[in-house]
Amino acid sequence: MQMKFRRGLLRPGALAVGIAAIACAAAALAATHMPPGSAGAAAMAGLMDICTTRDPAEAGFAAENDAAMTKMMAGMNIKPSGDVDRDFADMMIAHHQGAIDMALAELRHGGNEQLRRIAQEIIVEQQQEIAAMRLALGQPLPPSAPAPTQVGRM
After folding, report:
1. Counting CB atoms within 10 angstroms of each CB, which of 24, 25, 78, 146 has the fewest?
2. What confidence category does residue 5 fall into, taking pLDDT thresholds of 50, 70 and 90?
3. Residue 49: in which H helix or E strand, if any?
């Protein structure tokens, strides 16, 4: 999803930092309602570690990376279908999409040009592997779209 920003009103980076701040506020509120020692409390404690960072760019990266990891792990947690090939592909597609999402976070927030180039390569390669797995299973491919490798730092 691409968002358009009017010049001077809101920079994309400000949006990421704002979203991170909202996520941190929600985590703080949720933590007050979790039973101590529960899985939910442990998850909120991890998110609160992200929220206590002093660098807003780091908080934005950490929040995006945490969301990517959570989405990836949920996608890999499949119910066996009885078809090993399909199960493998479903889990690997979620895994590869997680790598793409993490690489996009690096492109948005990272400053090391060598790592940014690696992140671009990860996006292209993982998209190609997802397409190859879908083709191997006879699944339709999504419509063609340019690889989102030119994401600028915000």
Report:
1. 146
2. very low
3. helix 39-51
Burial class (CB in 10 A: 0-12, 13-18, 19+), 150: exposed
d(CA 31, CA 34): 5
Which has the closest alpha carbon to 70: 103, 47, 48, 51?
A: 47
Nearest-CA neighbor of 64 among 96, 106, 92?
Answer: 106
CA 149: distance to chain centroid? 14
pLDDT in tens, 21-72: 566 656 555 555 656 666 665 665 655 565 666 677 688 899 999 999 999 9
Q: Give the dihedral of Cα atoms 49, 47, 26, 72; nearest 10 deg.
A: 160
Question: Distance of alpha carbon 17 from its chain centroid, rounded?
Answer: 15
